[in-house]
Amino acid sequence: DVTEIEEKEVQAKQEEQIMKEQELSNLLHEKRYLKALGLAISLDRPHTVLMVVKAILKEADGRKHLEENIVRLRKDQKEAVLTFLVTWNTNSRNCHEAQAVIETLLKHEAPDSLLQYSGIKSAVESLLPYT
C-alpha cells in the first residue's frame, strides 16, 4: 500500500509551497523585488508578479527601479512575464503596469533577441488590440 507514501509527498509539497509563500511575503516586506519577482515567476503566479510590479512602481523612481529589475531577469523569466502581461493588459486596472513592463522589454531587448522569445508572435497579436 503506497497511500501513506503518497500522502507524505503531498504534505511535503504543501509545506514547501507554504514556505515559498512566506519567503515571498518576506521579500516583498524587505523590498527585495528582484528575488520576489523571480520567486513569483517560478511559482507561476501571474497575479503575484503583478503585485510585485505594482509595489515597485509605487516606490520613488518606480519606473527606474522596474527597469533595473526587469533587465536583470533571465530570458526564461522575461518570457514568463511577457505571457503574464498579455493578460494584465486586457484589464484596465492593470494595463498601466503591463505597458510599463512592455516598454522596458522593448527598450532593453534587441528586436532579434525578442524574436527568439517563445510565444512572442501570439503575445504581440494579443497585445496590439489593447495597446
From TrEMBL:
<protein>
    <submittedName>
        <fullName>TBL3 protein</fullName>
    </submittedName>
</protein>
<dbReference type="GO" id="GO:0030686">
    <property type="term" value="C:90S preribosome"/>
</dbReference>
<dbReference type="Pfam" id="PF08625">
    <property type="entry name" value="Utp13"/>
</dbReference>
<dbReference type="InterPro" id="IPR013934">
    <property type="entry name" value="Utp13_C"/>
</dbReference>
<dbReference type="GO" id="GO:0032040">
    <property type="term" value="C:small-subunit processome"/>
</dbReference>
<keyword id="KW-0677">Repeat</keyword>
<dbReference type="GO" id="GO:0034511">
    <property type="term" value="F:U3 snoRNA binding"/>
</dbReference>
<keyword id="KW-0539">Nucleus</keyword>
<feature type="domain" description="U3 small nucleolar RNA-associated protein 13 C-terminal">
    <location>
        <begin position="21"/>
        <end position="131"/>
    </location>
</feature>
<keyword id="KW-0853">WD repeat</keyword>
<dbReference type="GO" id="GO:0000480">
    <property type="term" value="P:endonucleolytic cleavage in 5'-ETS of tricistronic rRNA transcript (SSU-rRNA, 5.8S rRNA, LSU-rRNA)"/>
</dbReference>
<dbReference type="GO" id="GO:0000472">
    <property type="term" value="P:endonucleolytic cleavage to generate mature 5'-end of SSU-rRNA from (SSU-rRNA, 5.8S rRNA, LSU-rRNA)"/>
</dbReference>
